[in-house]
TrEMBL record:
Its EC number is 1.21.98.4. Binds 1 [4Fe-4S] cluster. The cluster is coordinated with 3 cysteines and an exchangeable S-adenosyl-L-methionine. Residues 16-236 form the Radical SAM core domain. Belongs to the radical SAM superfamily. PqqE family. It is an enzyme of class 1 (oxidoreductase). GO terms for molecular function: 4 iron, 4 sulfur cluster binding; cyclase activity; iron ion binding; oxidoreductase activity; S-adenosyl-L-methionine binding. The gene is pqqE. Gene3D superfamilies: Aldolase class I. GO terms for biological process: pyrroloquinoline quinone biosynthetic process. SMART domains: Elp3 (SM00729). Interacts with PqqD. The interaction is necessary for activity of PqqE. This is PqqA peptide cyclase. It catalyses: [PQQ precursor protein] + S-adenosyl-L-methionine = E-Y cross-linked-[PQQ precursor protein] + 5'-deoxyadenosine + L-methionine + H(+).
Length: 373
């Protein structure tokens, strides 16, 4: 889509506050093959990835728009040979730079170069608490050992570390060990993120959906660990929303706190936005990020609360959770403007619970991510 396709800003419509964060998916290439990968079924090929100059321009546009935090993600961002100049370019426009990585592909020399370029923070994914379980879920033998080595290098340099552990039926019973490992690795923060079934992960619902008993126990484990590890490890917990009463405010509300840029420069309000019908997404840097953020019909489609239908429209929680996740509403009800079916006020909630319980009792084999090479 070209710049001319954007509507001019309506004088009566105030500009939205700037996004706090931008997720830059530098590449979809990845050495791992996690079954819970949330990237789309169809990945962007290497030949279509933006080059260094284009990303540098996007970072400058993001800083001008008011973005403060840049998350460099993928795929595996270390697959980009120009990662160091990209970090330097982002720091040059005062973005806080977080690298989201599996650690596979990191060497001491590379870490030195990234640190010299100004890298602020690293978020390391954790596939399991030992080599057998981690390498099995990542589909990559030797991955766990390399990750532990990467964590030691980070600790030695004092680079702040967050661990991201995707939890599911196969590992939720090892949550205590996951928390203990985070402390041992010197992480300041642990994200305990129950698997979300977007993108490739949707093929693995019956293999990964946690049981209700597991979810309830996990909540208690997190409560106890938060109290015990106060001042040592901060724990963020994203519970299985199928077992909650109300949905999360996905992306903090559509078009309100963040944006995602895919490897070919497509700018999205959320990770899975391309699954929603009727939306067209512009590409940066050809179309400036500021114009996309303020004027793109796709960003305006579910911004605020005007688009809502019953029961959200009159609900007292509508400015707290913004009706939940548009992509989940689409996937489960076929209507992107429907109330997130996680909500107990949704007419689809009963069906969602029944499906989650069916999936949690499933015995399906893992379907490993393909197409990342
Ligand atoms: Fe949130 Fe809508 Fe449910 Fe109210 S009805 S709690 S706004 S999802
Ligand atoms: Fe798209 Fe939640 S993932 S709105």
């Amino acid at each position: 889509m070209t710049e001319t396709a954007l509507a001019p800003s309506a004088a009566s419509r105030p500009a939205p506050p700037p996004p706090l964060a931008m997720l830059a998916e530098l590449t979809h290439r990845c050495p791992l093959a996690c079954p819970y990968c949330s990237n789309p079924l169809e990945l962007t090929r290497k030949a279509a990835e933006l080059d260094t100059t284009q990303w540098t321009e996007i970072f400058a546009q993001a800083a001008e728009l008011g973005v403060l935090q840049l998350h460099l993600s993928g795929g595996e961002p270390l697959s980009r040979r120009d990662l160091e100049p990209l970090v330097r370019a982002a720091r040059a426009v005062d973005l806080y730079v977080n690298l989201i990585t599996s650690g596979i592909g990191l060497t001491e020399r590379r870490l030195d170069a990234l640190e010299a370029a100004g890298l602020d923070h690293v978020q390391l994914s954790l596939q399991g608490v030992d080599a057998d379980s981690a390498d099995e879920i990542g589909g990559y033998r030797g991955g766990f050992v390399r990750k532990m080595q990467a964590a030691r290098w980070l600790a030695a340099r004092g680079i702040p570390l967050t661990l991201n552990a995707v939890m599911h039926r196969r590992n939720l019973d090892r949550l205590e060990a996951t928390i203990a490992l985070a402390v041992e690795m010197g992480a300041r923060r642990l994200e305990v993120a129950t698997v979300q079934f977007h993108g490739w992960a949707s093929l693995n619902r019956a293999a990964l959906m946690p049981t209700r008993a597991q979810s309830e126990r996990a909540a208690a484990v997190v409560r106890e660990a938060r109290a015990r590890l106060k001042g040592v490890l901060a724990i963020d917990y994203v519970p299985a929303d199928h077992h909650a009463d109300f949905p999360k405010a996905c992306m903090g509300g559509w078009g309100s706190t963040g944006l995602n840029v895919t490897p070919d420069g497509t700018v999205l309000p959320c990770h899975a936005a391309q699954t929603l019908p009727g939306l067209r997404f512009e590409r940066a840097p050809a179309t400036p990020l500021g114009r996309i953020w303020c004027d793109s019909p796709a960003f305006q489609a579910y911004r605020g609360t005007d688009w809502m239908q019953a029961p959200c429209r009159t609900c007292e929680r509508k400015t707290k959770d913004f009706g939940g996740c548009r992509c989940q509403a689409m996937a489960m009800t076929g209507d992107p403007a429907a109330t997130d079916p996680v909500c107990i006020r949704s007419p689809h909630r009963e069906a969602l619970t029944a499906r989650a319980e069916r999936d949690a009792g499933g015995t399906a084999a893992l379907v490993y991510r393909e197409g990342c090479g």
